[in-house]
Amino acid sequence: MLCEEWEVERDWPDVDNCLPGKCMMAHKDRPESPAHDGQRAWGSASIELPRRFNRDLMSGKMRIVLKRYLIVGLIVLTGCVSESQSDIVAQVEDWILTETRLADLLVLAQPFPLDSAAVEDLVRHWVGAAAIAQVSSNEDLYDGEEVVRFSTWLEREESILQQEREQRLGETVVVDSSMVERFFRDGSYRLLAHVLRRVGAETTQEERALQRRTAQRILDELIAGGSWRAAVSESEDSDTREASGLLGLLGRGELLPELDRVAFQLQPGQVSGITQTSRGFHILHRPRLEEVSDLYAMHLRDRFLTEAEERSDQGLLVQRSWLISSDAITSLREIADDPSAWLGTDLLLGSWQGGTLSAEMAARYVLALPPAARREMVASPDESLGAFVEQLAVRAIRLGDARERGLELSEEVLVQLKESHQADVRQWYQGLAIDEMAAPERSSLTQYMEGVVSRRGVTANLRPLFEVWLLERVDWVLVESSIPKALLKVRNLLEGVEPSGSQ
Predict the structure, then answer these.
(1) What is the four-CA torsion angle of 183, 185, 188, 190, rounded to 10 degrees?
(2) Which of 347, 401, 433, 458 has its CA 20 to 30 A from that of 335?
């Protein structure tokens, strides 16, 4: 089975103007204030960033991983929906998504996992799309200096860190063609991709069976000669779908045990059968070396660089006398629960010779995490959260060292980042049929969402910080408590309906 495309696409601005939300509804009360006061570029335009915790596939490990296509978690607070509007699930200005309309979309979306987390992500997608449509009428989303600067903050930061790492460690790690071939044939490090049909804790047996049949159909199409690209387009793993399903270069024991056993039995070019995990139904693929030799070499070198850097990072923290605050872990949990509340605070999570790590700094990064990752952080063990704090400290120290050495972004990188942002905006404008010369129409959003759930065309994904920037400019609400009621309506609608195995 050939993989036609094995590429992944891609200073914090003034935080006083970046609060992501003005009017929101919650499932629980929140305090008014906190309780406590790379990768190199691939091809022409691709920079990866640390974006999320991952304990899903990576054998229960929690770490910052390199991902681009993620949707930022929206902050849910107490707020301003009246009793007469109790059917509202989400609202952006005067555009409303009701429980009934959401239920209709979910019926159209079948097969789709009917659990609260998956549906909440879909609602957040609606909020982001509605915000783009409305903000586009009075802001230059495509070429505006402010939005480009804000949306690409992490990319700019990451590029500086890449330079710093290459200067410090680059000459110590050399990967040649013979090494690539040796490691590939040895099989100890495997470049793997997958297709996922998602299930969750709330997925019913009928829904689970439907997802299983859909996975079987996708596999049958692959066996019959279908393309991997077409298969991946039906994957429900948004973190990997735009990267041809690529999970990365992985060693034994780095995947969940169910996937690990299958992955290390695959021969080059093979596609696995269907493997079930707690996340859903997976189809794994191991591409041939000739298909991915350059990609494999890049990942292998980056892995060696990462291993070298991890060794040096621990030494760095000792060298700089790193000291974590006694309440850092508790505070980080609260930051994960509501990062916007911590912007502008002066609480310290730790310190080192010559610098400090503030809660505000941590909140900036947490803002860029997807909802599932933030929920995971809240419930994660202290050890994992402590490791995350240390990673942020190391990152801040390295950035400081880079500034002292005068490292700056090249004009080429700045242009690359702007073009990447513009490409995203262009895709959104096309999907939403936005005409910059006319006011946006709700019908365009309706048609776009119907296309999303029915899998017609390409679904755009919103960069996390772009979303933060957009949502600061609109009045919006997301009512989490309405999602279970919408799910109940969906199940009532589906009762007695014979589900089909495919869309």
Answers:
(1) 90
(2) 401
pLDDT tens by residue, 81-132: 443 456 899 999 999 999 999 999 999 888 777 888 889 889 999 999 999 9
Kindly tell me if the per-residue pLDDT of 153 is higher than 70: yes
Task: Identify the CA nearest to 62 among candidates 70, 71, 53, 50.
Answer: 53
Helix, strand, coil percentages in the chain from 3-state DSSP, rounded to 5:
50, 15, 40
Asked if 88 and 106 touch (Cβ cutoff 8 Å), the reply is: no
Confidence check: pLDDT of 38 > 90: no
Contact 308, 172 (CB under 8 A): yes
Q: How far apart are CA 313 and CA 319, in angstroms?
A: 10
Count CA within 13 A, CB hemisphere, residue 62. 21
**Whether the Cβ atoms of residue 482 and residue 87 lie closer than 8 Å to each other:** yes
Is there a contact between 500 and 454 (Cβ–Cβ < 8 Å)?
Answer: no
- Comparing CA positions, the residue from 121, 36, 25, 23 lying closest to residue 72 is 121
pLDDT in tens, 161-193: 989 998 998 888 889 999 999 999 999 999 999
> 406: which 2 tokens?
């005068």
Residue 348's identity, in one-letter code, is L
**Contact assessment for residue 396 and residue 402, using Cβ atoms and an 8 Å cutoff:** no
- H helical segments located in 59-204: 99-108, 116-135, 145-151, 153-169, 177-186
Which residue type occupies 386? G
pLDDT band for 463, please (50, 70, 90 cuts).
confident
How many Cβ atoms from other residues are within 10 Å of residue 27's Cβ? Answer: 11
Find, among 335, 473, 372, 337, the residue nearest to 124 by Cα. 372
Q: Tell me how far the alpha carbon of residue 459 is from its chain's centroid.
A: 14
Residue type, 274: I
DSSP 3-state of 36: coil
Least confident of 37-41, 195-199, 382-386: 37-41
Q: At what angle do helices 464-471 and 116-135 cross, to 10 degrees?
A: 60
Enter the tokens of residue 443. Answer: 């019908």
Sheet holding 95-98, edge to edge: 95-98, 88-92, 476-478
pTM confidence score = 0.66
